[in-house]
Amino acid sequence: MATGRVPVERRRRRPTKTGTVLTEELIVDCALRLAGEHGAEALSVRRLGAALGCDPSALYRYFHDTDDLLLAVADRIIGETMHDFAPEGDWLSGLREMAHRVYSGYSRHPRIAAMAAYRVTRRAHEFRAVEIGIGLMRRGGFGKEAAVRHYAAFIDTVLGHAALDAAHLALAPERRGGDTRAWTEAYQDLPDAAYPQLAEVRHELPLMAHSSFENALDLLLSALESQARAG
Known about the structure:
Blueprint: H1 24-38, H2 45-52, H3 66-82, H4 91-107, H5 110-116, H6 124-139, H7 144-170, H8 173-182, H9 196-200, H10 213-230
Helix pairs in contact: 1-3, 3-4, 3-5, 3-6, 4-6, 4-7, 4-10, 5-7, 6-7, 7-10
Organism: Streptomyces polyasparticus
Pfam families: TetR_C_1, TetR_N
DNA-binding region: 44-63
């Protein structure tokens, strides 16, 4: 089935078996809930139809396929993160707040973040987010090309950390705990002769168990500030 937005004339609002009127917003709500409970495999027309109390084929009046639905879900997450965000004043402060909003937004949906973070939704919330991000870069004094390149580096760094940390949160507790303990157990028992550099920083290695998002953000914003001053 071809991808892309479903024409408005096909989105006829009809009640489900339970009497609920089916809408694009209701389907996205359901998809977010199911993905949060069961992971990516929940985004199937069969499971969505069962959860919504409708014939699975009815979903095709709103979305061309499950990938089209995934893009709508990703755009919903962007909309949640950017709600009421209208940065004024210092451009670096605006970028920092934007980064925290994006990171927190995907952290709230860890089971779907890894699938959604790298997609281009081509929808209204994403358009607005990119508009704001490019605007902040321009406010920092960057030219057109530099603003686009630097924004790409900024948002990819933020999304990459958001997806990585969200994927870790989505792990089963015992696996997540095993990964965390590795830095206080397995790495502490390595022989000094074979791993001299690790031996020197042995007591600092537990820091590796924590997210590097804040440190990466500080480094990135410092680099952008230096570029702006030089430019």
